[in-house]
Design brief:
By secondary structure, the chain is mostly beta strands. It is built from two helices and 28 strands. Helix content is 3%, strand content 33%.
Length: 322
């Protein structure tokens, strides 16, 4: 095992040759290292159609059958690749950080069982046949987890993904901060992404959140401490959600998103909390038929926010209702 170079690539662009000759990049497409705590790339593979519990999960030729098996094996800095339909409600492992979970379909989509290969190549995560309706699909309890190219279809009374922060200290702290979501689709359920207890430094990039009966992004005070500070929402689409966001946002950057045909609470960065503010909300598109910038409207900012966004009736300058 070692580093293989292709076409004159530098060592930083090389590949670690793992089990069964599998080639895993040392650096992902965002330039971040994908190695474990011992400096060795660790990757596990889940195939819900062709995998087995007796496999070692270290290659596509010997994949796990469930995400739970991969969660039990993964270490900090590792990667999980999956294909098929995951039907599980899980909590990320304790004291495991900076894991990337990647769906391998070309686009996050619902399964298509006809022909059979259609249910294998997709990357969908949804509830079991008998779900716990109040439990999220995945509860993130340590920092730095990333989810890429996955379609989530959540439970009726919980979030697709919950980021959880408690009052623990040292090794006993559980904190889902520094999570990232890239090119994911949240297609159904009560809430898309929920933060509970004050998870900060979260990034949501190029995601599509639609048809949530609660909130696209939900705020729960929880048992933790602090506020959801320094989030980034870049290039996302919010469509047909009952509500999008109502949260005491601090130092957020919200750019290049579209808010179309959403319901009651469209976008509220204030939530009546004195700790919120100093957000940058610019270059987003709001449907004026659903988003009201009036003093009693459903788009609400703070006096020290920066707002400049595009509406269907022209450009709105300045801060909306406060």
């Amino acid at each position: 095992m070692g580093i293989t170079h292709f076409g004159g690539l530098s060592a930083a662009e090389g590949y670690y040759v793992g089990a069964a000759g599998s080639e895993v990049p040392l650096f992902d497409k965002y330039g971040n290292p994908s190695y474990g705590p011992n400096g060795v790339t660790q990757a596990y593979y889940v195939d819900t159609v062709n995998g087995a519990a007796t496999n070692d999960g270290k290659s596509w030729t010997n994949p796990f059958s469930t995400m739970a098996l991969a969660f039990a094996a993964i270490q900090s800095g590792g990667r999980i690749f999956f294909r098929g339909k995951v039907v599980e409600q899980l909590t990320t492992p304790v004291e495991v950080f900076d894991v990337t979970v990647t769906g391998v379909g070309n686009r996050p989509r619902h399964i298509d069982g006809t022909p059979k290969a259609g249910s294998q190549s997709t990357a969908m995560w949804t509830t079991p046949a008998v779900p716990v309706t109040t439990t999220p699909l995945v509860k993130v309890i340590q920092q730095g987890w990333r989810f890429e190219n996955i379609l989530f279809a959540g439970p009726t009374a919980a979030a697709c993904v919950q980021l959880y922060h408690d009052l623990g200290e040292g090794d006993d702290e559980r904190d889902g901060s520094h999570a990232e979501f890239w090119n994911c689709r949240f297609a159904s359920g009560q809430d898309g992404i929920e933060q509970s207890g004050g998870c900060g430094h979260v990034g949501i990039y190029n995601c599509f959140i639609t048809s949530m009966t609660g909130y696209a992004i939900k705020n729960t005070t929880g048992v933790g401490y602090g506020y959801p500070i320094r989030w980034e929402l870049l290039g996302n689409r919010f469509l047909d959600n009952a509500n999008v966001l109502k949260m005491p946002c601090q130092n957020w950057v919200v750019k290049y998103n579209s808010f179309i045909e959403n319901g009651t609470e469209v976008f509220d960065t204030d939530d009546g909390d004195a700790e919120s503010g100093e957000n940058i909300i610019v270059d987003n598109y709001f449907n004026i038929a659903k988003a009201s910038f009036d003093p009693t409207g459903n788009v609400v900012g703070n006096t020290d926010d920066v707002w400049s966004n595009i509406l269907t009736d022209g450009r709105e300058e300045g801060i909306p209702a406060d």
